[in-house]
């Protein structure tokens, strides 16, 4: 079985890659994530994945450039649906690459994260798969969450603290650490 695995980051790749290979799949990875901001974060995640892919002899396809502006245009004023649009964009791109590469199916490491919306990913993956003409493979990789985290830590991988987009970064950090009002100067606040 030739499977294209859309990859969001190296730590999330560990368990799904292991399971797919144990099942006998010939896996090719795809790094396409215009949702990751800022660019310095994108580069950290890519370099960590590149090293892991080399260590695991995983063929890796890197998506077109870094279409951040396109991602933002698709999200602005639709923030409440940002995950749906983000999943759709990445899974649709993965389906087209999988079909072009004559894969039997495609899947995503997003299915490893306990923070992602699995029902939505599955629905979009199935829909995009039908639209493009290649099956989407769903497996709940969350059962390997703890194992993947332990392995990524033992390998001293860079482990990001938020999903990727600037909205998720704010959700992760701002709610617990807003700028204290005592630090805001009255003089500055007037402007």
Give a quick summary of the entry.
The protein is α/β, with parallel strands linked by helices. It has one domain (2-189): Rossmann fold (3-Layer(aba) Sandwich). Helices cover 47% and strands 10% of the residues.
What does this protein look like?
The mean pLDDT is 88. α4 packs across α5. By secondary structure, this protein is of the alpha/beta class. The protein is built from 8 helices and 4 strands, in the order βαβαβααβαααα. It has one domain: Rossmann fold (3-Layer(aba) Sandwich), CATH 3.40.50. Strands 3-2-1-4 form a 4-stranded parallel beta sheet, sandwiched between helices. 47% of the residues lie in helices and 10% in strands.
Layout of strands and helices, then pairs:
Blueprint: E1 2-7, H1 14-22, E2 26-31, H2 39-55, E3 59-62, H3 68-75, H4 82-100, E4 105-108, H5 118-132, H6 145-154, H7 166-173, H8 186-189
Quote the average pLDDT.
88
Strand/helix succession: EHEHEHHEHHHH
Question: What's the CATH H-level homologous superfamily?
Answer: HUPs
What name does CATH use for the topology? Rossmann fold
> pLDDT under 50 segments (min length 5)?
none
Strands across the major sheet, in which order?
3-2-1-4
Name of the level-1 CATH class: Alpha Beta
Number of domains: 1
Distance between the termini: 61 Å
- Proportion in β-strands: 5-15%
> What is the correct CATH architecture?
3-Layer(aba) Sandwich
The total of beta strands comes to: 4
**Count the helices. How many?**
8
The largest sheet, given as strand count, sense and whether it forms a barrel, is: 4 strands, parallel
Shape: globular
Structural class: alpha/beta
Q: Please state the CA-atom Rg, rounded to the nearest Å.
A: 18 Å
Q: Helix proportion of residues, in percent?
A: 40-55%
